[in-house]
């Protein structure tokens, strides 16, 4: 670990989180990180697992929706294995054009390039504000800040968009609509892999009116990446999260006691299972812990599309997956209640699931 001296605090505690990491990183005189970005001082539990490279499960989406019955059955089995063993997989042959994926990344990059005043219009006051821009995760409760700027936009069932950049609205609407259709088919396959009817998970979560959130992340170049963290180990709150990124690595997923470096195939989409799927599957499919690390060379941009149940829908394990040998693991809770709790507290592993976990589960 480097023994570099940390920078003096540029902000008072009251001012922390008001400026962007991008502004600070591009100031031209930053050679070390401010002390409140030193993740090694965090009270969050550290996971000192080795970092490795492994083959990540790959799902051929075209075979799932257009393959022969035998091909589709194999993909369904592959989905089940990926969800139970990894909670993470790559999707190839998904039919979403490269120009659309690149366009989505470009409009998000253009948003982060806006002035601090323009981005400041979207500093949210509540976790359910439909457009929120900021830094870290939740600066009101974070004890150590993360090397990350973000914008979160609700895009379904009601669609929102920042005013600038001008093409953000059209590009993000088209991209998120295509992702939502892909997720619907993946959820059907996952439902079948659990031995349920194809539409069970879709109906149980009221996915047609489910909440979809576009989360764009910017991880600027960091002068001391060994001390900072882009986003700490955590699981996501919804059903499935679909992620794409520029050509800069940084995503790692936990698997079998190791951090696995994610090196996606060209034009693939990355998908991870999230907390509501773990609840619905009664724990058979685990939401995956993942994190984003930073580097001292160049900025990374990612777009995560979080796909969850309808906000007012109460989510509980599928009765078909509970019996004497597999008692119910989670109690019922609306997705809105769960989302508000997770987004209002410090990001800390999978501790949000403890809110609905039944005693002795």
From TrEMBL:
Q: Name one GO molecular function term.
A: oxidoreductase activity
Write one Pfam family the protein is assigned to: 2OG-FeII_Oxy
Which keywords describe this protein according to UniProt? Iron, Metal-binding, Oxidoreductase
Which residue range or ranges hold the Fe2OG dioxygenase domain? Answer: 209-309
State the SUPFAM superfamilies in the record.
Answer: Clavaminate synthase-like (SSF51197)
InterPro entries attached here? DIOX_N, IPNS-like_FE2OG_OXY, IPNS-like_sf, Oxoglu/Fe-dep_dioxygenase_dom, Plant_2OG-oxidoreductases
Q: Which Gene3D superfamilies match?
A: B-lactam Antibiotic, Isopenicillin N Synthase, Chain
PANTHER family annotated for this entry?
A: OXOGLUTARATE/IRON-DEPENDENT DIOXYGENASE (PTHR47991)
Q: Which family does it belong to?
A: Belongs to the iron/ascorbate-dependent oxidoreductase family.
Q: What is this protein called?
A: Protein DMR6-LIKE OXYGENASE 2-like protein
Tell me what organism the protein belongs to.
Cinnamomum micranthum f. kanehirae
Source organism phylogeny: Eukaryota, Viridiplantae, Streptophyta, Embryophyta, Tracheophyta
């Amino acid at each position: 670990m480097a023994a570099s001296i940390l920078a003096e605090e540029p902000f008072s505690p009251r001012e922390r989180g008001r400026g962007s990491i991008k502004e600070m990183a591009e100031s031209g005189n930053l050679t070390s990180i401010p002390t409140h970005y030193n993740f090694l001082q965090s009270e969050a539990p550290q996971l000192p697992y080795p970092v490795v490279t492994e083959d990540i499960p790959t799902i051929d989406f075209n075979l799932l929706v257009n393959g022969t019955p035998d091909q589709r059955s194999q993909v369904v089995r592959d989905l089940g294995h990926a969800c139970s063993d990894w909670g993470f997989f790559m999707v190839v042959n998904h039919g979403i054009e490269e120009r659309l994926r690149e366009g989505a990344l470009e409009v998000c990059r253009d948003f982060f390039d806006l002035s601090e005043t323009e981005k400041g219009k979207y500093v949210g006051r509540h976790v359910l504000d439909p457009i929120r821009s900021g830094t870290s995760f939740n600066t009101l409760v974070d004890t150590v800040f993360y090397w990350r700027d973000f914008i979160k936009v609700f895009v379904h069932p009601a669609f929102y968009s920042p005013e600038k950049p001008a093409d953000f609205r059209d590009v993000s609407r088209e991209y998120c609509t295509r992702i939502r259709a892909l997720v619907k088919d993946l959820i059907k396959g996952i439902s079948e892999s659990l031995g349920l009817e194809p539409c069970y998970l879709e109906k149980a979560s009221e996915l047609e009116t489910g909440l979809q959130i576009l989360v764009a992340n910017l991880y600027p170049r960091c002068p001391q990446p060994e001390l900072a963290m882009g986003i700490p180990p955590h699981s996501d709150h919804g059903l499935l999260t679909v992620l794409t990124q520029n050509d800069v690595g940084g995503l790692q997923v936990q698997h079998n006691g190791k951090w696995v470096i994610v090196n996606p195939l060209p034009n693939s989409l990355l998908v991870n299972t999230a907390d509501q799927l773990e609840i619905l599957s009664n724990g058979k499919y685990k939401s995956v812990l993942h994190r984003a690390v930073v580097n001292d060379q160049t900025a990374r941009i990612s777009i995560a599309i979080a796909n969850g149940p309808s906000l007012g829908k109460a989510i509980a394990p599928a009765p078909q997956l509970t019996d004497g040998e597999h008692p119910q693991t989670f109690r019922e809770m609306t997705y809105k209640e769960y989302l508000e709790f997770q987004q209002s507290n410090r990001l800390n592993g999978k501790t949000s699931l403890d809110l609905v976990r039944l005693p002795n589960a």
